[in-house]
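Most newcomers find our protein records easier to grasp once they have seen one. A record pairs a protein's sequence with a compact description of its fold. An example says more than a description, so a record of this kind follows:
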Amino acid sequence: MANRYHGSDPNSASVTLAKLQNPVKQSFDGVNNDLKEVYKGLNNYSKALDKKFKDKPLPTTDYDALSSHSTLINRAIAMHFLREGQFSVASTFLSEAVTKPSQFLDSETDDPPNSLEHDLGIDALKSETLRKQFANMYYILDELKNKRNLLPAIQWARANSRILEARGSNLEFELGRLQFIWLFTGGLSGHGNSDMVECQRQALGYARQEFGHFQGRYLREIQQLTGAMAFCSNLQRSPYRQIFHNRSAWEDLANSFTREFCSLLGLSADSPLYIAATAGAIALPTLLKLQTIMKEKRTEWTTQHELPVEIPLPPAYHFHSIFVCPVSKEQTTDQNPPTMMPCGHVVAQESLMRLSKGSRFKCPYCPGESHPRDAKKVFL
């Protein structure tokens, strides 16, 4: 009976085990070969990362103009939290900045907590009014961008109409125009092209009700909107196609609203902390290279009020006009402003005084002669 079962035969058991062992071993060998390729790829990736992102030390703080102004940095951080709608985080940050001043003060300053609270502008940042303003801004933006609801933004623009008009802003009309387009294209009815007559009626009714006080300033734009009704059956091929089929219209209007809303609060449209951090990240490679060259040539950066090299920032990060004197090759400052001679050429004030020595002198760029008192200060 025992011979009927292969398990009772030692010879057959070893053969069975050998048959089972070979496929398992082949499978493990295949896995190991595949892992070798994975490990090889990981090693190459690590080498590529090390080659691309070399481990360089960050610039020293020897030339850090803000090292003695930690309160300004803390205020910028707190304001960034408020602007992003992180009200609880901003409150905690401000509380700890006051209750634990040793973590926020420089070693050279011994300002008491009350002084730090005053410098940070805690009262202004903790103001319930300011928080409500930003909460209202985010509510309006959410309605505008995510729900295609322009009414909260239109109501805000109406409430601040005089201020916006005094600033030369066209936000109120742009909101009304997009509302007209939204109604014209079936936004309210939701029927789309199935009931264009009703959509036109709603849009025309809105235009009659709201566009009356805009005619003096935006008559041409209003005529374009109403004239498009003649092409309602084929707007895609009409002269008004770009007006009614602008994919970026909602996003552009949201950005315009944010800019105007912050302007009325006396703030920039973008977070100063974000702008400073982004500009610093762009400038960092150039400054690292400069630091290496200065160390090799044993030279020093002699001023903190201007950069020793030009940093190519994007146009969106250019906020102020600058003037570089063509004589001294130095950027003008409030203490050394640009001055224009009667001939129309402009040089820095210090260059003007060196050229004139207090008497009449010849312009370095044309035959014209003038006296220093004839030069006029140029305001950038």
